[in-house]
């Protein structure tokens, strides 16, 4: 799984055979059984078959609830949260992750890195849920804690997973310098140890940082290379996100029509897999790029922003909701609808209690100040 990828057909075949043997040998409820259940979950999760992954996660948690040890229960809450997050249910995901964190005991659960290939307490994915639920500062601290713990463990595969998750959290925050540093570390560690999936993901994130720093040609090539390598491992869970990052890069390079087509492809793939976590941002970017066409269509752009807002509110992502509201308020300002823009953005900005140094909140504040002038 580490060498070829969690979704590699050989890994999946081995797991399915092991699952049959668990039953035949009466090993149900043993640590080995939980590893097999976890492997079946992560292989389905990574192929992007979210409904099947959710079923495996629910099954894992059900078995774990009858065990005296808290380790399997912790893992069950964590993997269920990851399924919920990928399908865009951020509030429920955060609740399960907070339960997992409350159960974690480093001394008791330290061997989990050997059993599952990653430490169950170094859940940098918590930082994703915190960012989406409107807590950017707590998100950054969670990512930092997860990386610190991963480095202490000295477990290369666990560190690769944590670096990837923490790097994506920095992309949410639009923290280019942090993405650049973490993606470089990820590629170095994963390449050294032959972790094909994580090395590929790292190149995608490196490419995004390159483009943000003005290296569009290099960055786009690196994103495409990383996406091809990731898909060669059988991994599909990140495809909608990766295509969204590619679309953003293409737009920055002035390739607006190609960027729009890439966003449409991302939406189509998300609809097939059920991995709709990025849909609000995809629609928002669609609106932004529509406004950059040689012949802009403001009505179509506004429709995309409204769709993004509706999805963000339904999914419980305050981060994407603020971003969509800022885009729509900016469009309304340009149309002279200043009071509507202020009424939309002001209460949402006022909801936040932290993260005021992040790019999104600074941008929203600057726009509100302009609207108040």
List keywords for this structure.
373 residues; mainly alpha; 0% strand
Account of the protein in words:
- Helix 2 (31-47) packs antiparallel against helix 3, helix 3 (50-64) runs antiparallel to helix 4 (70-86) and helix 11 (176-193) runs antiparallel to helix 12 (196-212).
- The termini are far apart.
- The protein has helices at 9-24, 31-47, 50-64, 70-86, 90-103, 106-109, 112-116, 125-132, 136-153, 156-172, 176-193, 196-212, 216-232, 239-252, 256-273, 279-290, 298-315, 318-334, 338-351, 359-372.
- 78% of the residues lie in helices and 0% in strands.
- It is built from 20 helices and no strands.
- With 373 residues, it is mainly alpha-helical.
- It is globular, with a radius of gyration of 21 Å.
């Amino acid at each position: 799984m580490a060498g070829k990828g969690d979704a590699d057909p050989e890994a999946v075949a081995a797991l399915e055979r092991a699952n049959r043997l668990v039953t035949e040998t009466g090993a149900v409820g043993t640590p080995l059984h939980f590893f097999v259940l976890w492997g079946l979950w992560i292989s389905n999760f990574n192929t992007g078959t979210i409904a099947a992954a959710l079923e495996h996660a629910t099954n894992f948690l059900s078995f774990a609830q009858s065990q005296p040890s808290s380790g399997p229960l912790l893992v069950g809450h964590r993997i269920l949260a990851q399924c919920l997050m990928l399908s865009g249910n951020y509030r429920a995901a955060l609740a399960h992750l907070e339960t997992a964190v409350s159960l974690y005991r480093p001394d008791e659960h330290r061997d989990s890195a050997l059993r599952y290939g990653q430490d169950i307490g170094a859940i940098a994915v918590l930082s994703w849920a915190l960012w989406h639920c409107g807590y950017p500062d707590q998100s950054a601290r969670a990512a930092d804690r997860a990386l610190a713990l991963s480095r202490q463990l000295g477990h290369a595969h666990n560190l690769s997973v944590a670096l990837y998750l923490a790097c994506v959290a920095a992309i949410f925050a639009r923290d280019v310098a942090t993405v650049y540093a973490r993606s470089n570390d990820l590629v170095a560690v994963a390449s050294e140890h032959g972790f094909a999936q994580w090395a590929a993901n790292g190149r995608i994130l490196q490419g995004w940082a390159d483009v943000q720093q003005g290296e569009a040609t290099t960055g786009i090539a690196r994103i495409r290379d990383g996406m091809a390598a990731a898909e060669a491992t059988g991994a599909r869970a990140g495809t909608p996100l990766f295509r969204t990052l590619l679309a953003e890069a293409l737009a920055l390079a002035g390739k607006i029509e190609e960027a729009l087509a890439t966003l449409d492809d991302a939406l189509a793939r998300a609809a097939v897999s059920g991995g709709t976590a990025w849909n609000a941002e995809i629609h928002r970017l669609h609106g932004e790029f529509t406004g950059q066409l040689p012949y802009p269509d403001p009505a179509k752009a506004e429709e995309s922003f409204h769709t993004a807002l509706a999805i963000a509110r339904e999914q419980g992502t305050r981060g994407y909701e603020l971003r969509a509201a800022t885009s729509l308020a900016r469009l309304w300002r340009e149309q002279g609808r200043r009071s509507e823009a202020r009424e939309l953005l002001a209460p949402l900005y006022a909801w936040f209690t932290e993260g005021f140094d992040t790019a999104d909140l600074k941008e929203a504040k600057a726009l509100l100040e302009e609207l108040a002038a």
